Structure prediction request, 177 residues.
Amino acid sequence: MAHLLLAYLLGSLVGGLLLFPGVRGRDLPGGSGVFRQRGPWAALLVVLFDLGKGALAALLTPPGLRPYAGAALVAGHNWPLFFRFRGGGGIAPSLGFFLVWLPEETLWATALGLGVAGAYHLLYWRKGRKGVYPIPFGAIFGYLALFLLAPAEGRLGALLVAGVVLLRGLQILLGRW
Prediction:
């Protein structure tokens, strides 16, 4: 239980809010929101921070608890204790987590997700900028690929984490971020 609480608390350290508090209330505090508000270098810093906390959570969690710790980490990032339960979307910390836990499967899934995001951006999104942003859209396919590529315990982790990301995504799409 302590490992899950630690994962949630690590997730609650939202890089965009810690490094760029002015983003709060104006946009989501993840890489994309910080990119829109502060530019690419600030976004890179936030993404690296959030990847790092995900990796740290995976390193600190015993293998048998990783599926649940991944979900707790992302829940902490999405609904952070330290920031009035208003955080990001959870993609970067989950990526860091899975890169440590299932590196080969995660690299393949990430490549697919980024490819889908790029195609979606070029073929649809950039014309009207309506609907889901490209990175979350591609992440749907990345989580699906991870689910299919991972061993059994990794499948449970991918399913739980994707479920938490999906809940946050629906909340954002409904305008309740």
The chain has a mean pLDDT of 91. The radius of gyration is 15 Å. The longest helix spans residues 103-128. DSSP finds nine helices and no strands in the chain.
